[in-house]
Specification:
- About 15% of the residues lie in helices and about 45% in strands.
- It starts with 7 loop residues before the first strand and ends in a 7-residue tail after the last helix.
- The chain is of the alpha+beta class and about 90 residues long.
- The protein has a 3-stranded antiparallel beta sheet with strand order 1-5-4, with no helix packed on it. A 3-stranded antiparallel beta sheet has the order 3-2-6.
- It is elongated.
């Protein structure tokens, strides 16, 4: 893919895991001559797809990768919302 300085590169990735846990993912990117990765959260687009974009700030090659993980808090929170909506009694 070729992009000009000032343009953005759009990245989409399918990120999934076994089971019904919530997934989070982020885009990591850098120019080829840099050692520091920058990261940006990816927006959920449905059907296990995440999307984000990064700006092309300089001439030359740019590298990117996607990192995904099971979001334990969001999984717990979604389960809690379902229990509340179902009228289940909640005790601590």
């Amino acid at each position: 893919m070729r992009s000009s300085v000032g343009e953005s590169v759009n990245v989409q990735a399918i990120v999934f895991a076994d089971g019904h846990d919530s997934i989070a993912c982020e885009l990591l990117y850098r120019s080829a001559d840099s050692v520091e990765w920058r990261c940006k959260p990816m927006a959920a687009k449905g059907n296990d797809c995440g999307e984000a974009e990064f700006p092309v700030a300089s001439l030359g090659r740019h590298l990117y990768t996607v990192q995904g993980w099971v979001d334990r808090f969001n999984t717990w929170h979604a389960g809690l919302r379902k229990r509340i909506a179902a009228g289940q009694e909640l005790r601590s």
